[in-house]
Design a protein that fits this description.
Elements (H helix, E strand, L loop, with lengths): L4 H17 L6 H14 L4 H25 L11 H32 L9 H6 E7 L8 H8 L2 E7 L2 E9 L4 H11 L2 E11 L2 E10 L10 H21 L1
Helix pairs in contact: 1-2, 1-3, 7-8
């Protein structure tokens, strides 16, 4: 027996209400029960309610799998069975987890090389790692005020193969940063990334760079070269202020 236009309209409106309620995950069960009661009040038989509910469930399942499929880069086919979708999603999540673990490992290594980790280095890392830390002597050619500024300078150089890690703590003066970059360029050291910060009259530079030709650094004390550049720039700025 065919349904009347009024009955068909009621079924259509009830279906829309059911679909809308499924968008709220925390209220699915409550809304579903309310919709069933409403559909029965509208005169729908239990069989009709069951058919409509099953139709909505399958539609919601298809939409969920479609969204899941769109999140995986490899799954671009329109007709992909659900087992394939689930298998690819699991594989993709595992690959993301592996990539995350690798990034965490690299981050830990970076922190360790910069001296920001309390973990002990392995013997191989100790063999590859060279580090020097210095507090610069003010010298006799600077007055007391300038000597105090130079004494604030701290230079740390850490090397592991072609990787160069620098930390520079110096008074905030124009020309220091450009002088450091010029020196690195002289020895074919390219800056990968740098963090610059300032506090009051001091500036802090944390630099990760790569030596394009490690042989150019043989016999070179990079830490001493950086000291000379910083002292030179501080002295130059002091002369300008006095003049």
């Amino acid at each position: 027996m065919s349904a009347s236009p009024k009955r068909m309209k009621t079924v259509h409106l009830s279906a829309e209400a059911t679909s809308s309620s499924e968008m709220v995950a925390t209220a699915d069960e409550r809304d579903g029960a309310d919709n069933l009661k409403q559909m029965r009040k509208d005169g729908m038989s239990q069989r009709e309610v069951h058919i409509l509910s099953e139709r909505q469930r399958r539609k919601s399942m298809r939409e969920s799998f479609s969204i899941l499929q769109s999140l995986v880069p490899k799954l671009k086919l329109k007709h992909t069975d659900r087992i394939t979708v689930l298998t690819e999603v699991i594989t993709y999540i595992q690959s993301l987890r592996g990539a995350l673990d690798e990034l965490e490992r690299k981050k830990a290594d970076m922190m360790e090389f910069l001296g920001l980790s309390g973990k002990h280095r392995s013997r191989r890392q100790e063999d590859d790692l060279q580090a020097t830390v210095t507090y610069i002597d003010p010298g006799n050619n600077l007055d007391d005020k300038d000597g105090e500024l130079v004494a604030m300078v701290e230079v740390t150089v850490r090397m592991c193969g072609p990787d160069v890690f620098l930390t520079l703590n110096a008074p905030q003066r124009r020309g220091v940063w450009s002088g450091v970059l010029s020196l690195l360029q002289k020895f074919s050291i390219e800056v990968s990334n740098a963090t610059l910060a300032s506090s009051g009259n001091s500036s802090f530079h944390c630099i990760h760079a790569k030596a394009m030709d490690v042989s150019t650094l043989k016999g070179v004390n990079l830490q001493e070269e950086l000291e000379r550049v910083i002292v030179k720039e501080l002295g130059r700025q002091s002369k300008r202020h006095r003049n």
